[in-house]
């Protein structure tokens, strides 16, 4: 039994069905049942496994939904199986996967109390980057993507003069801009300390003042879309592909999500969050939020050899090439061409040396982000409070939040 996180109507399901068909043709004696649960899988998988249901394989983000932290009593350690030959490649399964992804997966085990090793096989990689409309950038005269914050502001000014809103985002991704700035300046470990500071004093750090002042300056110069205050997902991504906004901080799943609107000729570009000045030297573009949906196996499965044989088909180079073609996805296998809309993203993915958490760690303190950090940020970005009021309000919000713990 294989539980998929995709719905049967999604392009990823088409690739999975083809891989399963190939497996069945090569192993006619093995019965395979695939259940396309969609994202409901993340709510259903733990009760199913806790109840003893024989789900042999499932998909999920090892660091998130359907992953190691919530399912550590069920996951099977794959190290020995990973040495088996990969399908269609003259190397092991482990060596057929991008090294950065395998390293990342292996670091997750000890952090959740598991014996060190690999408990998932990366299958659907992702990264968080600024995506931009190349046509808008070109018309504005932008000839190179920015690598520093100062260059980014210069690009925003050029785009603003061209008559297009330089930056957009919606309610689903507001956290990325806050955490992106602070982690670029100070690194995600510092951001983790910031959001967990029970005294609230860290919110008075000079870099927080700089952040607040930069947001005010950008708002006053008209660098943010006028729609940001009430923008509900997926409105912002539609604005991007329709040329009403130029730049949107999001994940590498964005091109496929808007492919119907964008069309085949849309010119995608992407770049990492720029280096923010006056930091502590621990941030910058050495860090990147990246990871992967993966394949996990049930340690109580009665079909481990056959199940892993199917896994090899699901993570084979042929299947990954199918994901590139059908879902515009980043391939997990080495030496596999990236889809055209994500070609720029490959540079960031291959160069990053530090994996940073979602939002640069801005969400690391439970619901503090949703109840205080994001709402106060939105007050700042919409002009309801100024920079000094922002700092004061965040210091007070942290004290209040932790006083109630």
TrEMBL record:
Extent of the signal sequence: none
InterPro entries given in the database record: Bact_solute-bd_prot1 (IPR050490), SBP (IPR006059)
UniProt-listed Gene3D superfamilies: Periplasmic binding protein-like II
Record gene name: yurO
Name this protein carries in UniProt: ABC transporter extracellular-binding protein YurO
One Pfam entry name: SBP_bac_1
SUPFAM superfamilies per the UniProt record, alphabetical: Periplasmic binding protein-like II (SSF53850)
